[in-house]
Amino acid sequence: MSMTTPMKKAFRRGFRDCSPFVAIVIPYALLFGVVARDAGLAVYEVMSMSILVIAGASQFTALALMQEHAPVFIVLLAALAVNMRMAMYSAALVPHLGKAPMRLRVLMAYLMVDQSFAVSVKTYEEEPRMPLEEKIAYYFGCVLAVCPLWYLCTFTGAMIGQAIPAHLSLDFAIPVCFIALVAPMMRSLPHVVAAFVSVLGAILFSWMPYNLWLIVAGCLAMAAGAQMEFYLERRAKRA
Questions:
Q1: Single pTM value for the model
Q2: Which chain regions cross the lipid bilayer (predicted)?
């Protein structure tokens, strides 16, 4: 699909809008490369994981469970549970990108990351009249600002991780990244309820082995958010 001038502008705009996350993606990816090598993975194993999964939170979860010698089933289940948010992201993007050609939707699904979703869906909701072609171009602009850096910095961390001074504390990038992503999305009561329940569930079930509290907290949060949406809809109909 050749790009028209409006599509090129949308692509550049997406790249520009997602560029601030570079400051988070770089240390986040470096940290994964360092931690994965420390856990005993070879460089090709680190890169295979990053290229196939492209999901930092899920990769860190799997890595932590592998270090605890958790059963393979538990590792896969926990990683899948953490990555289930991608299914929700996809559902949220269907009204905007659902009519794109199948080959592009497959590629967009593979490249989907938290940052590209958060930035693109916010723009789509603010500009509902944006043409489909421009939405697609905007989305790929967003992912191009993030995904290549994820690969490159993971490789860099895996190669020179031991040379990075411990006092740099690259792990600051993980909470900062998710705060930057989640905070602007707390725009409705169901969102707030889901976030509150997830935090409460994580605290109450932190005793569970193999980080299974992640799965429990996530399921409780999704159920609570959905029930709040249903309650608000019923109340609106009665009014």
A1: 0.73
A2: 136-158, 164-182, 189-207, 213-232
